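Q&A log
Question type: sequence-to-structure
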Amino acid sequence: MGHENLGDALPYRVSAEEMPSPTPLAVYFAANEAPLRAALYKHGAILFRGFDIVDGAAFGAAATAMAGPLLDYRGGVARRRQLGHGVYNSTEMPADRTLAAHNEKSYSAAHPDLVLFCSVTVAATGGATPLADGRRVWQRMSTRLKDELRTRRITYIQNLHGGVGPGKSWMAAYETEDRAEVEALLTSIGARFRWKADGSLHVEETVSPIKVHPVTAAEALFCPADTWYRSTSEFGGGRTGADRAAEEFPQYCRFENGEEIAPWMVDEIRSTILAELREFAWRRGDVLLVDNRIALHGRASFTGERLVLVAIAMDEPR
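Response status: OK
Response body:
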């Protein structure tokens, strides 16, 4: 079948090079969907190699065949360009920076179940998409931290400027200049929001830091607090400082009751994720299917040119 059974490997690998005859990825996936989904839920990600998916159109078609309708990226914090229907470049972060591992849009109720990547141009050096199994991250955490996260929810706050300022504008974040359209979207997902006098938009969403998988019932960390956390020391201590931070930082998070997240919690989340990171080397034409409810993904720094495409979708019965 071309499957590489590596037990708890992340990612699980499927190689067209080991198949008796060339098979399009969409055709292969349809013929083997049940075992492939089982492998996805077990491992958290599948790397499809040798299927020759090398441009946005081919990737979009394969991603749709595998995952169903592709979603837009409205409300996302990453800087991305839309290259086709439901297909974006993965990030416009400078090459010399590292993107911390995270679950896609885990700060929002409107997060995708599935994330798909496609390697079009392989970097000269670096440029991996590291993965971490959120279930193993959760298991590795201290009982003290798990007890805290089990009983509390986290509020993620965005201050999106109206055209000039740090971070993303609300127009870029929601891919529209229509305020009514933005308001309807935010209302539909239960977000709290308000427009500021300077034309910026303040958005808050409160979500659980734990994800229970709907198929396996396994618990996994689903919490980007390590990247959203900001020290409020410059604003003073206590609730006053936290309230000022919530108005001034482009991104900020705190507990639902307004209490700041303790630095030791953030440090442990960060170190535990780093301890579980796994890397593989991209090849041109690779497609990576990630169960976003299980696996975190990031990006290593790189040299040379690199183009990895991304698409997101829900995991709905078909």
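Response note: Residues 1-7 have pLDDT under 50 and may be disordered.
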